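On clarity, I found the account of how folds are encoded harder to follow than it need be. Since the whole study asks how a given chain folds, the encoding of that fold should be made plain. For the editor and my fellow referees, an illustration may be useful. An entry of this sort, consisting of the sequence and the corresponding C-alpha cells, reads as follows:

:::
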Amino acid sequence: LQSWTMGQGDAGLSEWDTGLFGCFEDPKICIVSCCCPICQVAYQKAAVEGKSCSVMDACLISCCPLCCMVSIRGALREKNSIDGSMMGDCCTLWCCGVCAVTQQQRQLILKGAKPAGWC
C-alpha cells in the first residue's frame, strides 16, 4: 500500500536541477529552444547517447517529434536518476514543450555535457 503513495519506493531519485519554468533564467537557451527545437533536441539526443550530433538525428526527430522528445527526456531522466514517468514526460512536452526542451538543455550543461550548436 505504501508504494502507491507519493515519494514512496523512489529512494535515490532526484529532481531536475532547474525548474520547468526556469527557462527564462537563460534567455539564450530559451530562444534557441523556441526558434529551432529540432536542432536543440537533436543535440540533446546525441549528448544522452554519448555521440556527435548528425543530420540524421534531426531528420529522425522531424519525423516523429513528440515520440522522440519523450524518449530523449526519459533517457535523460534515467541517466541522471531523476524521478518521473513516461506519461509525465509526454504531458510536460505536450503542454510546455519549449520549457521542457530548455530544462533538458540546462540539465545537460549543468551535468557537464555541451549539447549546444547546430546540426
Summary: The helical segments are 27-35, 37-49, 55-63, 65-79, 86-95, 97-110. The radius of gyration is 14 Å. Confidence is low (pLDDT under 50) at residues 1-9. DSSP finds six helices and no strands in the chain.
